[in-house]
Amino acid sequence: MLKKLIAEGLGTLILVLFGCGAAVLMGDHIGMTGISLAFGISIVAAAYGLGAISGAHLNPAVSLGMVMASRMTLREFGLYAVAQCAGALIGATILMVIASGQADYTVAVNGLGQNGYGEGYLGEYSVGAALVFEFVMTFLFVTVILGATGNGAAPGFAGLAIGLTLAGIHLVGINVTGVSVNPARSFGPAVLVGGKALADLWLFIVAPLAGGALAGLVHAMGFTRAPA
């Protein structure tokens, strides 16, 4: 189990460092499309590099979906979630150290690619819109993951399918919430940025966990599961 937890922590670190790093360090140069690709590529890298060890969930919502689909236990979910949040926090800390090397960077002004909604955040979408987006997109994301890693899936292509799906979600929704679909990814930057990012964090825990749980339940019921 320790080896699995290390892999989950390291994989989530990669996700935050690549994805949020693209937003903070290169956002002005690569735009939202580039940031979207960075998040997707990070998943592909972690899935193929670490997936054989832990499954490369990198996301408490994914792990909860696995619980609901009877692919892991609640105890394993708890341990995975702690490792994922720890990895995200370490990744965000590394990003902050790197970004702080630029003379005009401050966490308060430039942030760490944190998620948010409402006044002052990107498209200034309402809390209702943010909740719907995060819930629906996490449901779809976890549904793809369960299908790509389940019976009848094309062997060797799960990481690519999952990474491309995450990139697609970002292409749709960066302007809405910055795209979480992952409580750990939101947790790391929010803890270090504080303020509004920390106040908004509840949404990026509740909505993705609910979406992931529903995806696992629907899968367990057989509606999105290939025949054995």
Automatic annotation (TrEMBL):
Q: Name one GO cellular component term.
A: plasma membrane
User: What InterPro entries does the record point to?
Assistant: Aquaporin-like, Aquaporin_transptr, MIP, MIP_CS
State the UniProt keywords alphabetically.
Answer: Cell membrane, Membrane, Transmembrane, Transmembrane helix, Transport
Source domain of life: Bacteria
Q: Any idea which GO molecular function terms this record carries?
A: water channel activity
- Main localization of the protein described in the UniProt heading: membrane
Pfam families (UniProt xref):
MIP
Q: Which residues cross the membrane?
A: 37-56, 77-99, 125-148, 160-181, 201-223
Q: Where in the cell is it found?
A: Cell membrane
Q: Which SUPFAM superfamilies match?
A: Aquaporin-like
Q: What topology in the membrane does the UniProt record assign?
A: Multi-pass membrane protein
Family of the protein in this entry: Belongs to the MIP/aquaporin (TC 1.A.8) family.
Protein name as it appears in the record: Aquaporin
Organism for this UniProt entry: Aliigemmobacter aestuarii
